[in-house]
Here is the input.
Amino acid sequence: MTLDKRLGQRFLPYGANYLDWSDMHELREAVEHGVLFRYQTENESIASRLERRVAERLGAGHVLAVHNCTEALRLALIAARPRSGDLVHIPAVTFVAVAGAVLSSGLIPVLVDVDDSLSLDRTLLPPGTQRVIVAHMEGTVAALPQGVPYVVEDCAQALGARFPDGRHAGTAGYAGTFSFHHNKVLTSGEGGLVVTGDEDAWATMRCYHDHGSARVPGRYPTWNQDAHYGENFVTSEGVAAVQYQQFRHLDEVLAGLERMHAIAMEELPDRQGLHVLPRAAGDVKISLRFRWESRELRDAAVAALTERGIANWTLNKYLLPEHPVLTGRRSLYSDGFPWNLAPGGPLALSRDGFARTRDLLDRTLCVPLSPELPEAGQALAVKAVRQALETV
Ligand SMILES: *Cc1c(COP(=O)(O)O)cnc(C)c1O
Here is the structure.
């Protein structure tokens, strides 16, 4: 692929570049075996191997592979045995899947405003808060609230990120969730993982994700006398095999992002009207994040980059207080469940009705990095971004 093509409008910036037939040993194994169902295998399934590998790499207690991060969020929420209608505090700036997972679990989302780094502002949480989802957006590790019993870390955009104390994002709260959707750090098209150090939660998740059964691999499911209902979130060997291949490249992807980010921080000095948002050492450097002085400048920068075929995105799409799924409070249930369980009054916590957040989003612009490029290519790509921004 030529450099120009690489610099073009591509939205498969990370793991997708590492998909490679010559590296698909596990997928070949699954196909040659003729079994794509994880509980049908005679030896340890590829899905189990993946879970074990991820647990080792992240220092996680238990790992369960599911179809996507949204299912992982649902498992994390219901494994805590909530009452229907319980409140779950979520960031006001994140992908709508977070709110959808809360609602489809029969719970009520409360939108909490974000700080300058666009992470949930934990100082806004009222005393006695029970359930919070913190999202580490674009690899930026958010500090977790203290004293909240059920903190779920949504790491859909932050696989491999670390807290300042060295723990991996996803392993510090009650549970952590990960996505292998096409646009994330690693990809299997769709795919998800939930991790937890809580033994009871893990047992509950495992049963719920397999029709409520306490299955022994290789056998028909069995239901204990105390079984509860479940759904089917059991992953496929084919997907797990691709995830395993992708996982082999995690460190390479992280290092490539780190290297290009460092080049950019050298080459893109702050100029008037533009601020390059700093990243912490443990963050995954998913993108360059720019903050402009005004929305007009930001929009001019979008135009300049797009005109040159340089991929970029804004974060306005993540503003949940204005998302139709939340403003409309619609449900497929004729009684409006679970919104009908919501207490009166606004389900939002903000000092200023999200005015500052709206302004921050209006002035923010992100440019993806290219971990797969050699250093010289990364330097050229950074130069192209710089030249585009200089015209603004
Ligand atoms: C992508 C994403 C999700 C949903 O992940 P899926 O695997 O697509 O279900 C959830 N939260 C955040 C922050 C995301 O970016």
Remarks:
- The radius of gyration is 22 Å.
- Confidence is low (pLDDT under 50) at residues 1-9.
- The first strand starts at residue 62 and ends at 66.
- The chain has two domains: 15-249, 250-318+354-390.
